[in-house]
Amino acid sequence: MARDSDKRNFALREDGDESSVFSGGTPRQAALKAARRLDPADSEDEADRQEIRLREKGTHKVHIYEAWAWVETAPDDKPDWMPGDITKGNVSKEGVEHLDDI
């Protein structure tokens, strides 16, 4: 697992605007966090797949993922603070794009 000093920041790009920043040791870890913010479906099979683009801060690299989210019942051994239904997400890497300008 990455230490805090090994975490990288990734900005979510939507129409050239970078509205949110997600951190993680890898681009996929940040993409999974971003995927959980999508509008969730009732099951993984019914989830709409959307493209998300994450630019690694300090670079011109944009990591492109297909992402989807769904709602699931929390596990039986969940902590007391966790709600009964949780949002889960998944991603599939589509590629990397290099920007000329940020």
UniProtKB/TrEMBL annotation:
- Organism, per UniProt? Haloarcula salinisoli
Q: Which domain of life is it from?
A: Archaea
Ranges where the record places region Disordered: 1-52, 76-102
Q: Where is the composition biased (Basic and acidic residues)?
A: 1-14
Q: Read off the Pfam families from this record.
A: MC1
What is the role of the protein in this entry? Protects DNA against thermal denaturation and modulates transcription.
> What InterPro entries does this protein's entry cite?
MC1, MC1_sf
Any GO BP: DNA protection
Q: What keywords are annotated for this sequence in UniProt?
A: DNA-binding
Q: What is this protein called?
A: Non-histone chromosomal MC1 family protein
